[in-house]
């Protein structure tokens, strides 16, 4: 049901450049600047801009053979690759909201960019060609969101697609440190994750939800804005921090001598130690030391790990928070 990059007669398109500022793309209706990259069919008087072509390539909407032989030369690596290894395609910035993902320079309208629409990754001509030193930098999250809203308003993305792309932006831009990757055979190298993870056990990234349109794929709970989630954009999978905590806690048995954390009524944590466990009661009752005093409590008030929402680290790169006790043997 999406837009296919081809003329009305499905003819072979020729790659070229505009010769004036009087050209417009027949897909996005944008006016093109002089010298902009286009794909044209003179028989149908049809022109598609480079940005629409790049977008169409990212979703497989360019029919095989629809472009003149010898294209795309981009696939040879001449145009470079994004950070995920996808080939970059040339296009022209349709407005002033586009910026280079390496040097953060905002592009002029009609400025040449080389980008990957799968990853929302763009390079200016200087950074792509290595013509200037490019300090590490990122276009702001606000600019990325503005870009996605423009694509949605232009009809390129429906609401579900917009939210999916928004997830990719926040996963990549907000706290992308760390991660957990299961071993190929399915074994968990950390031994603390349990069954928490996407179906293919990809790297999970920790980030706060940007709005209230997200839900946990484990417990199906609707999440509030700013809640900590661990997501995989390849599988469009997200798990809330509470489900991660439960998965980790389920792998650990607390017994006499185990170090742990006691969760106070206000939610704060106190480093504790299990003094004894009464298994005659169901569920078992735990006697723990809290601030130098013995206190009887249930397992649900005890944590083997610092809850992931409390951690300042990625929460996924190591089994415990730096201040947390080591896992029990």
Give your account of this protein's structure:
- Helices cover 16% and strands 23% of the residues.
- It has 329 residues and is an alpha+beta fold.
- It has 3 domains: 14-152, no CATH class; 178-247, no CATH class; 253-303, SH3 type barrels, CATH 2.30.30.140.
- The strands form 6 sheets. It has a 5-stranded antiparallel β-sheet with strand order 17-16-15-14-18, with no helix packed on it. A 3-stranded antiparallel β-sheet has the order 1-4-5.
- It starts with 13 loop residues before the first strand and ends in a 26-residue tail after the last strand.
- The relative contact order is 0.08.
Short description:
With 329 residues, the protein is of the alpha+beta class.
Q: Largest sheet, order of strands side by side?
A: 17-16-15-14-18
Supply Rg. Answer: 26 Å
The major beta sheet can be summarized as: 5 strands, antiparallel
Number of domains: 3
Average pLDDT figure = 73
Low-confidence stretches: 69-78, 131-139, 174-192, 312-329
Q: What is the straight-line distance between the termini?
A: 55 Å
| 3D shape | elongated
**Helix count, DSSP H or I runs of 4 or more residues:** 5
Region (Disordered): 310-329
Biased composition (Polar residues): 310-321
Helix-strand blueprint:
Elements: E1 14-17, E2 23-24, E3 31-32, E4 37-41, E5 46-49, H1 50-58, E6 89-92, E7 112-116, E8 121-124, H2 125-129, H3 141-153, H4 159-173, E9 205-208, E10 214-215, E11 222-223, E12 228-232, E13 237-240, H5 241-249, E14 259-263, E15 269-278, E16 285-290, E17 293-297, E18 302-303
Antiparallel strand pairs: 1-4, 2-3, 4-5, 6-7, 7-8, 9-12, 10-11, 12-13, 14-15, 14-18, 15-16, 16-17
Helix pairs in contact: 3-4
Biased composition (Polar residues): 310-321
Region (Disordered): 310-329
